[in-house]
Specification:
single chain, 261 residues, alpha/beta, Alpha-Beta Plaits, 9 helices, 11 strands, globular
């Protein structure tokens, strides 16, 4: 059962001025966190309500997953996807950066070789994405300092991004979920926004949402709690907190009912 304050916040979005944009993270928000990232799935009920919502508002998934993987996880025709932390998108925007994929491939290969040489790979889950590589240490937290050391200094053209039990190297371009959200808002001219996320990478997206509020948009920020792994900034910036992907589903269903879809 959703808290009263949560329902009130969601009503502000569903009753806000048109056009409306629902922008959400993927892992830890729509899909439960699992030990192996390749095993993560968005529940069928969540996919179904996203399909319904896309008939009434612009629904966008902003994720660290690469674009093709995110599309497979959210195979909803009406949902916009922005992958690789804002570096891949299913729409065009001058705000989103371009990436030199040839130079990037060589830099990522160097980073992977360093980590593989320094860490026992049997305990390490390396997630190779289209334009980044994520080094997961959920099953072996003691590998975190080893991975950090192997990646210091980073190969030219890369930067490090931290997440929930993961270190990711990606292009040193002006991307990020904050840029992605601003590009989406400009793309659809949204005047009402519901923004959801759970991780450190979502903090920048929340802060971008607050700038849109300052410019006059109706903005509701819903943080998702993942227990002690949740960065404190998520709770500090959110208007309301949801306590699991299951509660995210409840929130989405509530919004769908409010919108009559």
């Amino acid at each position: 059962m959703l808290a009263t304050e949560t329902m009130q916040a969601l009503r502000r979005f569903s009753e806000g001025p048109l056009p409306r944009l629902l922008a959400t993270d993927l892992d830890g928000t729509l899909a439960p966190i699992v030990e192996r990232p390749q095993d993560a799935r968005v529940p069928p009920a969540t996919l179904a309500v996203l399909d319904r919502l896309a008939a009434a508002v612009t629904v966008a998934v902003i994720t660290g997953r690469d674009l093709n993987t995110a599309r497979r996880m959210v195979p909803c025709e009406g949902v916009v996807v922005v992958g690789s932390h804002g570096l891949e998108a299913s729409f065009e925007s001058p705000l989103l950066p371009e990436v030199d994929r040839l130079a990037l491939a060589a830099a990522l290969e160097e980073a992977e070789e360093r980590v593989i040489e320094a860490a026992p790979t049997i305990y390490l889950n390396i997630e190779r994405k289209a334009i980044s590589t994520a080094f997961h240490f959920r099953t072996a937290p003691e590998l975190e300092p080893i991975i950090r050391k192997a990646l210091t200094p980073l190969p030219k053209g890369l930067r490090l991004r931290e997440g929930r039990m993961v270190l990711e190297v990606l292009p040193d371009a002006r991307g990020g979920k904050d840029v992605a959200l601003l590009a989406l808002q400009e793309h659809v001219k949204a005047r009402s926004l519901l923004v959801m996320g759970d991780d450190l990478t979502d903090v920048a997206m929340f802060r971008a949402a607050l700038t849109l509020r300052e410019r006059g948009a109706t903005v509701v920020i819903a943080g998702v709690s993942g227990g002690p792994e949740t960065p404190p900034e998520i709770g500090q910036l959110a208007d309301t907190m949801l306590h699991s992907p299951e509660e995210v589903l409840e929130a989405l269903q509530f919004v769908a009912r409010q919108l009559g879809v």
